[in-house]
Amino acid sequence: MTLFRLLFTCCFTVTLFVTSTLLQAKTDTSTSSQPVHIAVASNFTFAMKALIAEFKETTGHSVKASYGSSGKIYAQITHGAPFDVFFSADQAKPMALEEKQLIVDGSRFTYAVGALVLWSVQTNLVDDQGAILKANAFNKLALANPKLAPYGTAAMEVLTHLNLVETTRKRWIQGENIAQTYQFISTGNAELGFVSLAQLKQTPRAKQGSSWVIPQTLYSPIKQDVVLLKRGQENTTALAFHAFVQSPKARAIIESFGYTTLNNPTQTPQGLK
To answer: Of the candidates 269, 235, 244, 264, which has an alpha carbon nearest to the alpha carbon of residue 50?
Structure first.
């Protein structure tokens, strides 16, 4: 009888231990696989898709991303949009969110520095000095809306620096964001326009056109900041992805798409050829 009780007690204890372990493992898996929703500036679309793929391969966790103009995303966040992390195309909007206390303290950092390009699908239209701008030999010039998109602000700085704002203004066609601006040019609605180098590096057709990688002395650095929003402060997947973007592997991916990073500030954006 004593032996039977001993065996029963041992079996019961082992069963409790196994059950507890399995429940804990299930809880850990559930926690580590929390769904995460990030908002991303449209210029960073291609690079972000590569980052998400690498993150999923490394961790097994999926990331849902919504893309759009930084201005619209900012407005959505201030009105309660359910985003966990925001990758802006500038610093101003993340800083504004920081002032509104809508982000996790200390989570803001520069994940990429963008480069601006004057581009046309037509070969030999744009030379490596952008002379066509001064020649004014075009009907439509596409640029992103500077009120919504940082790349539009940069384009305005270039035109201002070259004293071409007034002479070209009537020929502007403005996109809501850099992605729509690219569409205007790629479809021929505008002969040329200002887009991001990252967009063109991932577009085979772009390499068949003509372009001018604009010297960074003509516009302010396009520093792109990311922030962890308060909604995502207890989301383990959001925390992991936010940290992943700062890793050497992630920085290498970002730089391969035509951006520079603050960890490699002397890097010079390369052209399309």
So the answer is: 244
List of the chain residues with pLDDT < 70: 1-33, 204-207, 263-273
Dist CA 40 CA 264 (whole Å): 22
Distance, CA of 35 to CA of 176 (rounded, Å): 29
Per residue in 22-48, pLDDT (tens digit) is 333 333 444 446 899 999 998 899 999
Instruction: Give the number of other CB atoms < 10 A from CB of residue 99.
Output: 9
Which DSSP state fits 267? -
Alpha helices, DSSP H only, in the chain? 2-32, 45-59, 70-78, 92-99, 131-135, 150-161, 165-168, 178-186, 197-201, 236-244, 248-256
Regarding beta strands 64-68 and 37-41, do their DSSP bridges make them parallel or antiparallel, or are they unpaired? Answer: parallel
- Phi, psi (rounded to 5 degrees) for 43: -65, -20
For residue 68, the Cα-to-chain-centroid distance in whole angstroms is 10
Distance, CA of 93 to CA of 99 (rounded, Å) = 10
Taking the complete model, does pTM exceed 0.70, yes or no?
Answer: yes
Angle at 40 between CA 37 and CA 41, to 5 degrees: 165
Tokens of 154: 């940069």
Q: By three-state DSSP, how is residue 69 classified?
A: coil
In the chain the first and final C-alpha atoms are separated, in Å, by: 86
Question: Do residues 50 and 253 make contact, with C-beta atoms less than 8 angstroms apart?
Answer: yes
| Residue-wise pLDDT tens digits, 197-250 | 988 887 766 667 899 999 989 999 999 999 999 999 999 999 999 999 999 999
CA 99 – CA 10 distance, rounded (Å): 59
Is residue 130 a contact partner of residue 118, using CB atoms and an 8 Å limit?
Answer: yes
Residue type (1 letter), 8 = F
Burial class (CB in 10 A: 0-12, 13-18, 19+), 217: exposed
Distance CA 62, CA 79 (A): 25
